[in-house]
Amino acid sequence: MIFDKFFRYEIPTAIEFGNGAINSLPEHVRELGGRKVLIVCDQGVLHAGVVAKLEEPLKSNQIPYEIFSEIEADPAIDSVDKGLKLGKEEECDVVVGVGGGSSLDTAKAIGLMLNNPGHIRDYVGINMVPNPSVPVIAVPTTAGTGSEITIWSVLSDKEAKVKLSVGSVYNCPNVAIADAELTTSLPPHITAATGMDALTHALESYVNKATQPISEGLSVQAMKMISEHLRMAVVQGENLEARSNMLLASLIAAMAFNSTRLGLAHALAIPLGAHFKIPHGTVNAILLPEVMQFNVIGNPKKFAEIASIFGVDTYSLTEREAAEKSVEAIRQLKDDIGIHQTLSDFGVKEEHLDFIVEEAMLSGNVPVNPRKPTLEDLKNICRAAMTEEKESYITL
């Protein structure tokens, strides 16, 4: 294959992967020149005893630390302000984020602000941050967001009811410690939702217009691992093989989209999550099949390949028939892992669609989507995701 499109691929984060990898935390703190650690987490992770697994090696190596645990499910810019205040008061010079995307995004933003002037709002957008972050170590406890290696922090402005995205290579953690043993207590419904988030990352990166050879290989590998292990991770949470493969798949999917951006599912997920408090993984799971149905004609070859990855026998099918089967395969996966909600279950109504799609159209994920949408197209995707009746909404 001759590939004549210019592209760039970069990942500055070192990855430590494996069961028990969390025990390497003190070594990394010292390598980064840290004298005192700020642990950033949410209350759920704290009370589940996960943070204690970080505290033990820090204590045994006589590394002082403070814990900031005021993180909400939808992380707010106020949390960044509070964590920053504590970090400065306690003179912390390394930030360790532990938890799901909310905790990791907040930890990364706190790290940025410990070495940059002004307010986190000043750096909304891409490559707006002037100075490197203080060292950040990211410890994921879910297999979904990939925040442990990405350039993005997505934060909520609760008053304005909008989500703000800060993207910079300076926002990438220095080290990601991915230890599947920290994910085994994750409840089935969160395992399912975060797994669908990881799938959406891999799939949207794979079919979009910014895809490139490195990201494509990563996307394919992530989708294969998710197709083989997500169901088991949901129904057998203690299964370390399934958990390890999902954690790695999530990380690999993030390595793919970090350089390519995503598509319409994520474009719509931002305003829907902000205004209706729909968990990010859940809203992506609801939207993904409907976005796929809309996008099939924009990249039929790739969607046919996705069908094969998810176990569809495409030998006797035309490319278009196989592409359509990919949508059915993802619907089946979503059903198998117990995600049955629609947007209507979260209060989304027809009268809300105008402002939802107008906000979604501002997303940088829209220009790279494989099929250019109109505002009405985005409304139709939402309508399909509001009901069990799909066929009448998505038009070709």
Properties at a glance:
single chain, 396 residues, alpha/beta, Rossmann fold, Dehydroquinate synthase-like, alpha domain, 2 domains, six-stranded parallel sheet, 14 helices, 46% helix
How would you concisely characterize the structure shown here?
About 45% of the residues lie in helices and about 10% in strands. The protein is an alpha/beta fold.
The major beta sheet can be summarized as: 6 strands, parallel
Number of strands: 9
Report the structural category.
Answer: alpha/beta
Looking at the structure, the CATH topology of the largest domain is: Dehydroquinate synthase-like, alpha domain
Number of helices: 14
**What is the domain tally?**
2
Report strand %. Answer: 5-15%
Please state the CA-atom Rg, rounded to the nearest Å: 20 Å
Q: Would you identify the CATH H-level superfamily of the largest domain?
A: Dehydroquinate synthase-like - alpha domain
Low-confidence stretches: none
Q: What is this structure's SSE topology?
A:
Layout: E1 14-17, H1 25-31, E2 37-40, H2 43-47, H3 52-60, E3 65-68, H4 77-89, E4 94-99, H5 101-113, E5 125-126, E6 136-140, E7 152-157, E8 162-167, E9 175-178, H6 188-207, H7 213-235, H8 240-257, H9 264-276, H10 280-295, H11 300-309, H12 319-336, H13 353-360, H14 375-385
Parallel strand pairs: 1-9, 2-3, 2-4, 4-6, 5-8, 6-9
Antiparallel strand pairs: 7-8
Helix pairs in contact: 4-5, 6-7, 6-8, 6-10, 7-8, 9-10, 9-13, 10-12, 10-14, 11-12, 13-14
Pfam family, one: ADH_Fe_C
Organism: Halalkalibacter okhensis
Domain Fe-containing alcohol dehydrogenase-like C-terminal: 191-386
